[in-house]
What does this fold into?
Amino acid sequence: NWSIVSPLAISIIDLVQWLPICYVVGAEPVVEVEQYQQLFRLEHLDDQTNKQFSSRLFHYPTNSYKAMSVRDGQPYCLRHILGYRLSSTASMVLIEKWRKLAHPNVCAVREVFTTKAFGESSLVFIHDYYPGAETMQQRYFNNMQTATGMEGSGGATDKHASATLANGAMQSQRSATPASTALGLQPGLKEPLIWNFVVQLASAVRAVHNAGLACRIIHPTKVIISGESRVRLSSVGIMDVLTFDIGHTDQSALMQQHQQEDLTALGRLILCLTCNSLLAVQSPHIAIEHLAQHYSSDLKNIVIYLLNAQMNRSINNVMPMIGARFFSHIDALMCQTDVLEVELMKELQNGRLFRLLCKFGMINERPEFNMDPQWSETGDRYLLKLFRDYLFHQVGEDGLPWFDLSHVVHCLNQLDAGSPTKICLESRDEQSVI
It folds into this structure.
């Protein structure tokens, strides 16, 4: 088998197809900002939930774009904060910390700058771009639900979402209480999937806090999901700049306060996932009672700990509460790594063989240069022509074309390695044999 297995190939093709896709809304888009070109908006015209929440959270209108960098030719997510004037560069100290932070569950901050390319003074954040990603709210929550009660925490429906929620709803057949029914609470995602999210988000929060920073955007509209269950914190660093108070005397104490708010926000997010409703945060006691009916006591204890704002909490205390589920997560990652390594070994030599085939195609069959001694089909070029026929024009005993990919790959590898193996080359008129 010389090709990638179907599920992996389909997922990669989906990502590649997402690269040129964007949602152009409103007027003609800006085509260039600094070294970023081909700007196009990433929001649907009808998808106002995320945009409205961003305005309430950041206190400024925001737009998200996919942009291509002329430096490396890679796509990036460009978030435009409209109408913001940077009054002090002191906040850039925090941005430098964000730029140094590298974590698989955090969208890296690449650059922050001010510009007038949009017609007014505004602030631009450059984050890594993940094609096909969608917010947790888009995938798991009804778009008609609002983020009421979660603003302080910060923050295309997937074809698997409805099936996942349906499977989670089958975990328990217990009847809901009248209070939970009034809030629209119901069994949410399957518990293994929720633990998967908890492990990833807790790891991200731990890395951010250890770097002396705070996320400040743990919210369904700011947690993005790629593939089946890979989550990342997006829009990090924006709140640090927009709300930076240069007159605050104790920045360390302020950052600790923001870190405590991160833990509360994480608890609210988990609670919403278990109740399948963003309204769960309005009545946490009822929601926790609902959680206890449908999920394990370990998950309930984590939520209670994270929501207990009366005590000084630490993300490091959450790790022991997750317990052995870390090993299940690591085992799954190792298995996925093994699959990727096997598939990579299949494709490793494709580029080398492709270059050989390109050279064959460029040299062989150039009749317009027959009078040129460097291009005419004599000497080595004649041997290459016969070898090309030996590769691709084989016939069987019945005289019919013989298709054998292994023959082509084996011969190309021998040619590239300079193998001393001898083969028989025959001209098309069968008058010459070498």
